[in-house]
Specification:
Elements: E1 2-7, E2 17-21, H1 22-28, E3 35-40, E4 43-52, E5 62-65, H2 67-73, E6 80-85, H3 91-99, H4 106-117, H5 123-136, H6 140-153, H7 178-188, H8 207-211, H9 221-228
Parallel strand pairs: 1-5, 2-4
Antiparallel strand pairs: 1-6, 2-5, 3-4, 3-6
Helix pairs in contact: 3-4, 3-5, 4-6
Length: 229
């Protein structure tokens, strides 16, 4: 089914969302939170469906796309895209398996993480996976499998410099800027430290938030290589 793009000028902060007029939803027998594969040329992505009850927001025959979806597709206002209903991911059954106290195999972990990376799971489903892992716990084999799955589905930074070291702490102490002191000392001593840090989780400001006061912290893989080298 083909629809004309409407840029709704909204960003979700990560979740990929599209909006269809309620008349189109009824005609296509769709439902809120359905997964739609939205495609433009050779690019496609999975987006969660929201429904517009008013034609003022999204008229019939158009599809409202959040900024994240527009970026994924390289789409803009009035472009034409095609949509198709996507199947529920098999990883949902595996998340239920963990909630029920089962053990996840390396293959299970790979499938779950791959679905997360490719936006096949909703925020609610990812939350259930995190909650299940927290409440039921991950044994050593599951922890290793999860770590390997994250490596195999993510971007891997390969550097020709040695030695390469990392500094890590659990954080959570307000005003504790350990990383911003330790990493420069290590670099000054001749070590390579390609440090990544998170934004605030439990404290007023995480390392990335604090460092951003001094310099840009969001960098692509090629920029990171240039900075480290």
């Amino acid at each position: 089914m083909r629809f004309q793009v409407k840029d709704v000028d909204i960003t979700t902060g990560g979740t990929l969302v599209c909006i269809l007029n309620h008349h189109d939803v009824k005609d296509l027998d769709l439902h809120p939170n359905d997964r739609l594969r939205v495609s433009k040329g050779n690019k496609s992505t999975i987006a969660v469906l929201d429904i517009a009850e008013s034609s003022k927001l999204v008229p019939k025959g158009k599809i409202g796309l959040m900024e994240e979806v527009l970026d994924k597709l390289g789409a803009k206002q009035n472009d034409t895209v095609t949509i198709a209903l996507d199947e529920k991911p098999k990883s949902i059954a595996l998340i239920k398996k963990k909630l029920d106290g089962g053990q996840l195999t390396p293959e299970d972990m790979m499938l779950i993480v791959d679905d997360i990376v490719h936006n096949r799971l909703t925020q609610v489903e990812i939350t259930y996976f995190v909650a299940g892992s927290y409440v039921k716990g991950l044994d050593l084999d599951e922890t290793v499998s999860l770590t390997k799955a994250m490596i195999n589905t993510g971007q891997v930074l390969k550097l020709d410099r040695h030695p390469i070291v990392d500094k890590h702490c659990i954080g959570g102490v307000p005003g504790n800027r350990t990383t911003m002191l330790v990493v420069p000392i290590l670099v000054a001593a001749g070590y390579t430290v390609p440090k990544t840090s998170s934004r605030s989780i439990t404290s007023p400001a995480g390392t990335a938030d604090s460092m951003e006061v001094l310099a840009k912290v969001d960098h692509g893989m090629e920029d990171i290589k240039k900075i480290v080298n």
